[in-house]
Amino acid sequence: MAEEVLFATENTTDRATIAELLRSVADRLDAGDPVTLSAGEQSITLDVPARPTFEVKAERETGSGPDELSVEFEIEWNDDGGDGDGESDASLSVE
After folding, report:
1. Count of structural domains within the chain
2. Count of C-beta atoms within a 10 Å radius of residue 69
3. pLDDT confidence of 82, banded at 50, 70, 90?
4. DSSP at 92
5. What mean pLDDT is predicted for residues 26-36?
6. I need a labelling partner for 24 at 20 to 30 A (CA). Which of 32, 64, 73, 87 fits?
7. Do 33 and 58 sit in the same domain of this protein?
8. How many CB atoms lie within 10 A of CB 95?
9. pTM value?
10. Range 74-83 contact pairs with CB under 8 angstroms and sequence separation of 24 or more
11. Domain co-membership, 38 together with 54
12. In whole angstroms, what is the distance from residue 77 CA to residue 54 CA?
C-alpha cells in the first residue's frame, strides 16, 4: 500500500506545549469538530469520523548512537469516512 504524506512537521519543544497541542486536538475530537493542522505554509483540515481506530505505540530505537525512545498516537480511518480497520479487546488507560 502506498503512503502519501499530506502534512508533516517535527520540532523540539517543551512538554507543556506538547500537552497544549494534544489538548487542543482532544477538545476538537470531543466536540466532533474538524481538526486543522498548520505549520508555516502547510495546512490541512481533517474530519475525523465518530469511531476511528486509535493506535498507541511506545518504541525504543537502537543503533549506532544512544537509544531513542518515542510514543506515537495515531488516529486512523478510511478515506470514505468509515471506521478504521483495527480492533482490540484491551482497553487503553493512561496513568
Report:
1. 2
2. 9
3. low
4. P
5. 97
6. 87
7. no
8. 2
9. 0.83
10. 75/29, 75/48, 76/52, 77/48, 77/49, 77/52, 77/53, 81/47, 81/49, 82/49, 83/49, 83/51, 83/52, 83/53
11. no
12. 9
Mean pLDDT estimate for the chain: 91
**Measured distance between the N- and C-terminal CA atoms of the chain, rounded to whole angstroms:** 35
Residues 43 and 1 occupy one common structural domain? yes
- pLDDT-above-90 percentage for the chain: 79
Q: Round to whole Å and give the CA distance between 86 and 83.
A: 9
Closest CA to 52 of 31, 78, 34: 78
Separation between Cα atoms, residue 60 and residue 67, nearest integer Å: 7
- Read off the C-alpha cell for 9: 512537521
